[in-house]
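4.2 Preliminary Data

To establish feasibility before requesting continued support, the project team ran the inverse folding procedure on a target of 153 residues. The structure was first converted into the token representation described in Section 3, and no sequence information of any kind was made available to the design step. The complete token record follows.
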């Protein structure tokens, strides 16, 4: 009896309809999720916490996707790159916002700063219905007076 005649499974070389299942890396799913979270960290750049949460989870998943292998998948490397860039963008945006605020406040005179604080107190009270001193323990006008005194204006 010939083995090839009774074999129910098609042979690779003789059968043109032979289907070979694609080889899949076991860490590929983690790498894809890492890339998705890295992209989310970039798109949520104007929130303070989401980029750091998504970015850190993306980095962890990219490292875990490597498993015991010697090389990291390209998708995992892209996940790390997008996560790090998302977190760096948040730091840059936050730094630019702080520098613009400091530049704006340093261009004002002492009276303008106190007037700005008074307007902020009025806006907070009209929008929230509560006094700023009840919310923060001090008024925004007093904070601006302290800031003007600290800057010597």
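Position-by-position output of the design step:
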């Amino acid at each position: 009896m010939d083995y090839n005649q009774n074999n129910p499974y098609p042979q690779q070389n003789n059968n043109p309809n032979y289907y070979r299942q694609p080889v899949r890396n076991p860490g590929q799913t983690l790498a894809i999720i890492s890339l998705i979270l890295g992209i989310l960290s970039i798109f949520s750049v104007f929130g303070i916490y989401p980029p750091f949460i998504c970015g850190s989870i993306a980095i962890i998943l990219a490292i875990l996707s490597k498993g015991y292998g010697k090389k990291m998948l390209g998708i995992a490397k892209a996940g790390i790159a997008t996560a790090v860039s998302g977190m760096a963008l948040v730091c840059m945006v936050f730094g630019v916002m702080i520098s613009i605020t400091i530049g704006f406040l340093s261009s004002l005179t002492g009276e303008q700063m106190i007037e700005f604080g008074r307007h902020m107190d009025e806006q907070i009270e009209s929008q929230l219905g509560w006094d700023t001193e009840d919310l923060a323990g001090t008024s925004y006008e007093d904070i601006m007076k302290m800031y003007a005194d600290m800057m010597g204006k």
